[in-house]
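Forum: Protein Structure Q&A
Topic: Joint prediction for protein chains with partners

I've read a bunch of threads here and the consensus seems to be that you should model interacting components together rather than docking separate models afterwards. I'd like to see that in practice. Below is the full input, 414 residues plus whatever partners are listed. Could one of the regulars post the assembled result?
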Amino acid sequence: MSVEADVKTLIIDEQEVSARAGQTILQVARENDIYIPTLCHLDGLSDVGACRLCLIEIKGGNKLVPACVATVQEGMEVSTDTERLRKHRRTILELLFAERNHICSVCVSNGHCELQTLAQEQGVTHVRFPYRNPNLPVDASHERFTADHNRCILCTRCVRVCAEIEGAHVWDVMGRGINSMIITDLHEDWGASSCTRCGKCVQVCPTGALFDKSKIGSDHPKYPDFLPYLNLMREAQ
Amino acid sequence: MSKLKLATVWLDGCSGCHMSFLDMDERLLELAEIVDVVYSPIVDAKEYPDEVDIALVEGAVSSEDDERKIRKIRAHTKMLVAMGDCAITGNVPSMRNPIGPEAILNRAYIENTSAQPQIPSVVVPKLLRTVRPIQEYVKVDAYLPGCPPSADTFHTALTAFINGGPLDVSALTRFGA
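Posted by a regular:
Agreed with the consensus. Here's the joint model:
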């Protein structure tokens, strides 16, 4: 029995591309080597559109749309790299830096940080907003890992990997808006929580917010590439 | 042609940016052909000159003295360059911001001192409530992030500033570099 594929044709950055119905604009762009910056997106996890870095323009619409959650439509014309988008992306990154205490020079993730790399790539040389410098806790109660809320950008990758892949759902988000925090269980110490100690959250964390205690200095690259493989192997079973 | 007047300034930083600047090594000799260093921790000028072409400012604004200095520098400088992460982000000095200056002074001068513990109040300038990057006080014309920016970054950037050529800072350096 053959299944007829529902193919959509659209234009991304003046390039004609085809996609399967239900694919996101980000997926299709990546398949065609068209770069869209992302931060909260991670291959192998569900998408939440939290960071807004993947915003794109669709011809005929005034609103900017996050490419990670917007699905393709027949005939749509997408722009991924306009001056307006570049301006918004820089602003988003600057706001992330201003919101908490990102001291790159002394961060465990210096040189391996997705926020730092994106800032450089998008041409952020300084932050135009006043730094908030909030007083935030560092949870070092876990035997193997540390959560430094000063570096957290609330991308929720840790929450998603723990719930969706590990199946433990230890991480979650507490509070609203600028007071939001990632927490373990019902805001208990990480060390006293129901954590399975798998370390997936550490590997998917884009910054130095979650790190391995055995790593020091800038010797802390993260390896989130296992996720798509893990999903693939599980599907095959 | 008269030489360009270059100043380098050290506010609240570790002097690492100045060290890195000096790491230009023999290229400093070429630089000395075209600029005069009119004010710097490494030359013996006590007062900031009236007219400076390019000023490289290291360090954040942490004290009343820093604030006075950066305003004076701005008023007498054509091109003000924020040099390094402390000047641009507050960096390590700004790590005291969440807890305030009292806690820091107490730890340094009372808790950890056995002989005559007291917080200095004369001669040393008063600390501001929070450590701020210089662009929160004055207009900055160019930013060179890095902790510290490399000697190559300094050389490429200064060459561009002096010759008025294009400069892609993000291709050279980044926060924490």
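The helical segments of chain B are 16-22, 27-34, 64-75, 85-89, 101-111, 151-163, 169-172.
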